[in-house]
Amino acid sequence: MIGCTCTWLGRVAGGTRLRRVGRRLAAAACLAVLAGLVAFWAVGPCRAAQAAAPSLPLPTIDIRINGRPATQGNLATSLEIVALLTVLALAPAILVLLTSFTRIVVVLSFVRHALSTPQVPPNQVLVGLALFLTAFTMYPTWQQVYGSAVGPYLEGRIGQQEALRRAEVPLREFMFRNTREKDLELFVSLSGERRPRSREEVPTLALVPAFVISELKTAFQLGFVLFVPFLVIDMIVATTLMSMGMLMLPPVMISLPFKVLLFVMVDGWHLITRALVQSVR
Predict the structure, then answer these.
(1) What angle do CA 237, 242, 246 make, to 5 degrees?
(2) Could you say which of 10, 42, 206, 258 would form a disulfide bridge with 19 (CB–CB 3.0 to 4.6 Å)?
(3) What is the pLDDT of residue 24?
(4) Burial class for 279, CB neighbours closer than 10 Å (0-12, 13-18, 19+)
(5) Strand partners, 74
(6) 186 burial class (0-12, 13-18, 19+ CB within 10 angstroms)?
């Protein structure tokens, strides 16, 4: 239509150039119409095939738990799974608060700062060493827990409540050995309960925080003892530099090699590891 209009205008005006433009526009319009028809006939069968083809089913996830009825001494399977997930979520807190991990990792951190090497050894090395030392020192306690509670429970000889009660006994004995009476008395008095007459009457809710602050106090005492020889080296180096008039030179740069040399000569890691293990047991 556009080409015809331009051709008619060209004839009326008598313009040769406008007539050529009209012919070109007419040819382009014809090609566009033919392309549209071809596309329509090509897409039509594809749409029909898609409409005729069955829709693919979407994948679904179906989670079912075939639980057994709760009997005396045993919980239902679903409740046992919930309890297991809860224990796994609290496992880091149990490892940190109910074992010797707190004391060991704090002392190792003190060693690193006493050497004036805050990044050596790296955190991964210190935490890994603390975990293995914790497993080594807690192995007798965990062996008692497995022999008296976990093993009989897996064999079906005792129920869950009885297993928890038996597992609590070795852990409480370990915490009692490493807890100060002053700290335990503090939390018992804060709880507002009457004074217990024996260890069996001490609530675990008061024993755990008392054990944690006792471990922190012991760790800080060991850290102070570790700091003393390295502090002496820092003071000697600083005094020597001041007497020589080298005030702009940091004393840490000079004292660091001497502290590392002293630590290696006395076999520091051996002494610290032995002291930690003996203090826990």
Answers:
(1) 95
(2) 10
(3) 61
(4) middle
(5) 71
(6) middle
